[in-house]
Amino acid sequence: MMKAPLLVTPILVLTCLAGAAPVDAHHAFSAEFDATKTVTLKGTVSKVAWTNPHAHIHMDVPNQAGAITSWDLELGSPNALMRRGWSRETLKPGDVVTADGYLAKDGTNLANARSITLSDGRTVFAGSSNESAKD
Amino acid sequence: MRFAHWTLVVGVIFTVTGGLKAQAPAGSGSIAGTVVDPVGSPAANIVVQARGADGTPRRATSEKTGKFAITGLPPGAYDVSVNVPGLRGYERKDIRVTAGASATLDIRLEEGTQLSTLGEDPRGIAADRLRHAPPSGPAPRTGDGKPDFTGVWWQPVVVDQGAPEWLPAAQQVAAQRQANNRKDSPQVFCLPPAVLRRGPLIEFVQSSSVIVEISDDDSPGFHKIYLNRTSHPKQPDWLWYGDSVGHWEGDTLVVDRVNFIEDVWLDQDAHPHSDKLHVVERYTRPDLGHLETVVTVEDPGVLAKPWTFKRVAELAPKEELREFICNENNSDLPHLVGK
Lengths: 135, 339
What we know:
The complex is a heterodimer. Chain A is mainly beta. Chain A is 14% helix and 41% strand. Chain B folds into two domains: 1-130, Carboxypeptidase-like, regulatory domain (Immunoglobulin-like); 138-335, Lipocalin, CATH 2.40.128. In chain B, a hairpin with a 2-residue loop joins strand 15 (243-249) and strand 16 (252-258). Chains A and B meet through strand 1, helix 1, helix 2, strand 2 and helix 3 of A and helix 1, strand 3, helix 2 and strand 11 of B. Strand 1 (6-7) of chain A pairs parallel with strand 3 (43-44) of chain B, so a sheet runs across the interface.
């Protein structure tokens, strides 16, 4: 899968040393996703659910034979995404994207989205597509 | 509490090869290696800290390739740690450094307990941190001369964790809940989060008779601090947020909280509480940009003695708290698994 390097700013790091914020999500990562099972999905956005506690991107993903499988990608909350510059219009039905993420533990067609790359190679980040997929 | 998780407990996969390189200056040694993220990509700008017997932290920042080198280390044993919000904390004890040599330590960061998806991932947290720009100046006051806490604040950062002494039974419950991936936490069911949890943003709306504290990612997300009464109801009314009364001691707002419903968890480390839980929060605003809280947790049912910690929030004047209707689409429930 495409691997986007983890970049953490020095400002962030200094803050960490001073004491970390007790960030938390609605549920624990380990309760739903398997950190050892990554997945790359290439397909077409069929629906954007701009909902709490998590936004979801639904995708139609074709296999080599052309058969379509529907996938559900879980994102952060709209609050968190909006602070990064996203909106419910950032991705639209019909957009062709490649998503990297972690598979759900229960074996369903559910994954969380670690990164989403547009068809022109730009990785959607902070709403400005300002992160090169080749970084 | 959560800071133990969040604060980045770090469990990392590491390798210590003990490889010796003739790079360090005579009389000192170094610790060097590569930091990679949970999927194996190089992790840049990560601060790796080594602390030796003298207690002095020595640090190096990883390059774009993930490589780091902490040099000039007096010979001895070092504890190495890495803390990145959103990922598990990493700690490796007793790395041996000898004069003129370099000990190799390759660090693989692991996913933390948060969702780690777009918006709630290490980069998202980093992006939030970049938005922090607390203004300077004196703390504002209300018309009656009291410090005014009104405003939106970033999630408080714990600056002094204190030393909670959990009773064994409470530790056991917390361990069981954590081993079960906290999948039965009230928050999962869109009920209020742990008593001591705040954020990622909080807001205070203040009047002379009541203060409303609003917390993001929380349902319903607000509780009231009554300033117009001094005591709690004689007949306890068990509540998710407890009963909160406040009074002023000089420029400090002292909030006294009791009567927490049994179902609510105490902290993000999944500790329980008893019907004796008593939380005292002492709020001060030393300047325009900062809100300090000293929290004392007293509960003879779960703690051997009162536990005091301190956290500080920065003003977030450009942020708004959007509504968080958790049950709008809580589709996670059928997918959650324990152990």
